[in-house]
């Protein structure tokens, strides 16, 4: 899967594998983000219900890394084993520079048209350096069609919102003024 940024210079390539053990995503984003050079590689693991169980993000320009695990029976932990109680309410991850992570709550929640759900995510900023924190968001499924669905994505900590168009598998195909799915 490929995405091309709209109004800024960036491309993303994503490989997703869905098997008996869960969902495995491997993405690479190159270009600029907020005016800074960007080369970010991420790997994400989800269970069969699209609940994030592990995330690894590597800034290939600076060698900064974030590694978090979220075993089903435990809370979020850093790679050194440190518990992250501040992330206790988060199920999903949102990496600032990719449209893929919007798929996680869309697939997990399976909202009926007209329904909305607030979620807490582990928000991973990629500039000026890698960092993470809990953030509240809302997803509203606006409409459903045979070949696409529309969702309203809202950050509950800012004025940012976009109406997303997703394919039947919940992958973003149009993120207005930000990303657009590019055919390979």
Q: Give the overall shape, derived from the CA principal axes.
A: globular
Number of domains: 1
Class computed from helices, strands and strand pairing = mainly beta
Biggest sheet: strand arrangement: 7-6-5-4-3-2-1-14-13-12-11-10-9-8
Estimated radius of gyration: 16 Å
What is the strand content?
over 45%
Q: How far is the N terminus from the C terminus?
A: 7 Å
> Number of DSSP helices?
1
Strand segment count: 14
Major sheet: 14 strands, mixed
Assembly status = single chain
Helical amount among residues, as a percent range? under 10%
Helix/strand order: EEEEEEEEHEEEEEE
Show the helix and strand layout:
Elements: E1 2-5, E2 10-19, E3 22-33, E4 36-46, E5 52-59, E6 65-69, E7 77-78, E8 92-95, H1 103-109, E9 116-125, E10 131-144, E11 149-155, E12 161-166, E13 172-175, E14 179-182
Parallel strand pairs: 8-9
Antiparallel strand pairs: 1-2, 1-14, 2-3, 3-4, 4-5, 5-6, 6-7, 9-10, 10-11, 11-12, 12-13, 13-14
């Amino acid at each position: 899967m490929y995405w091309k940024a709209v109004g800024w210079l960036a491309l993303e390539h994503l490989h997703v594998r869905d098997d008996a053990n869960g969902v495995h995503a491997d993405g690479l984003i190159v270009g600029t983000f907020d005016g800074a050079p960007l080369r970010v590689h991420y790997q994400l693991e989800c269970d069969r219900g699209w609940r994030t169980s592990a995330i690894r993000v590597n800034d290939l320009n600076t060698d900064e890394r974030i590694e978090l695990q979220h075993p089903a029976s435990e809370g979020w932990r850093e790679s050194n084993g440190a518990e992250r109680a501040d992330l206790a309410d988060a199920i999903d991850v949102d990496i600032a520079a990719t449209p893929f992570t919007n798929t996680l709550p869309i697939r997990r929640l399976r909202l009926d048209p007209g329904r909305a759900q607030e979620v807490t995510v582990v928000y991973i900023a990629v500039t000026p350096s890698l960092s993470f924190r809990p953030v509240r968001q809302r997803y509203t499924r606006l409409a459903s069609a045979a070949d696409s669905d529309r969702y309203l994505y809202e950050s509950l900590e800012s004025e940012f919102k976009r109406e997303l168009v997703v394919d039947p598998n919940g992958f973003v195909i149009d993120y207005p003024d930000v990303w657009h799915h590019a055919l390979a």
